[in-house]
Design goal:
The complex is a heterodimer of chains A (118) and B (107).
Chain A (H helix, E strand, L loop, with lengths): L2 E4 L3 E3 L5 E8 L7 E7 L5 E8 L4 E4 L8 E5 L4 E6 L8 E8 L5 E4 L3 E5 L2
Parallel strand pairs in A: 2-11
Antiparallel strand pairs in A: 1-3, 3-8, 4-5, 4-9, 5-6, 7-8, 9-10, 9-11
Chain B lengths: L3 E4 L2 E4 L5 E7 L7 E6 L6 E5 L3 E2 L7 E6 L2 E6 L9 E6 L6 E2 L3 E5 L1
């Protein structure tokens, strides 16, 4: 079974750094894209960016370019989403998603809730 | 960036009735369109890809149609578990983009 398991909820202060993770299992990790989707409280889905672990090709939404960094460690089948300086507006649920070369998202991770508050 | 616009924002439907949800792309995306369902407190789940192909395990009451800029998701007979928020997403261009969602609520 293809599965994505994300790291646990985080509570951080503005200005702190954070790296959340998404571990893939049940498939060839290097053969599928892994993306990240943000969902702010009570709002819709926003595509942030995506990485192909096979060659580290990474694409970002213009809305998130420069705000976050997406990376992957194929030796442990894990993708990451990283912030260097969190803001209160980064408070959201973050989902990782697996994507074939064609581009739809399936499956989804269970989500990581990030809360940024002073 | 391609803007995806869903309508209506909220759809009130009685159980057993048919629901029709629309999704419009600001420019053509061919058949590179997916639909997702999200229930409260859960991650979204893929329903449809390629505009009309049901994902594994998705019941036949869900059907998708359209191409280019106009797409439709139809739920033929709403079950209790179908009251949720539905999103469309295009994957023809970078960046991938989602619609803002349609909430299907019990009438």
């Amino acid at each position: 079974e293809v599965q994505l398991v994300q790291s646990g909820a985080e509570v951080k202060k503005p200005g702190e750094s954070l790296k959340i993770s998404c571990k893939g299992s049940g498939y060839s990790f290097t053969s599928y894209w892994i993306g990240w989707v943000r969902q702010m409280p009570g709002k819709g889905l926003e595509w942030m960016g995506i990485i192909y672990p096979g060659d580290s090709d990474t694409r970002y939404s213009p809305s998130f370019q420069g705000q976050v960094t997406i990376s992957a460690d194929k030796s442990i089948s894990t993708a990451y989403l990283q912030w260097t300086s969190l803001k209160a507006s980064d408070t959201a649920m973050y989902y990782c998603v697996s994507s074939s070369g064609s581009g739809w998202f399936d499956p989804w991770g269970q989500g990581t809730l990030v809360t940024v508050s002073s | 960036e391609i803007v995806m616009t869903q309508s209506p924002a909220t759809l009130s439907v009685s159980p057993g009735q048919r629901a029709t949800l629309s999704c419009r792309a600001s420019q053509g995306v061919g058949s590179s369109l997916a639909w997702y369902k999200q229930k409260p407190g859960q991650a979204p789940r893929l329903l449809i890809y390629g505009a009309s192909t049901r994902a594994t395990g998705i019941p036949a009451r869900f059907s998708g149609s359209g191409s280019g800029t106009e797409f439709t998701l139809t739920i033929s007979s709403l079950q209790s578990e179908d009251f949720a928020v539905f999103y469309c997403q295009q994957y023809n261009n970078w960046p991938r983009t989602f619609g803002q969602g349609t909430k299907v609520e019990i009438k």
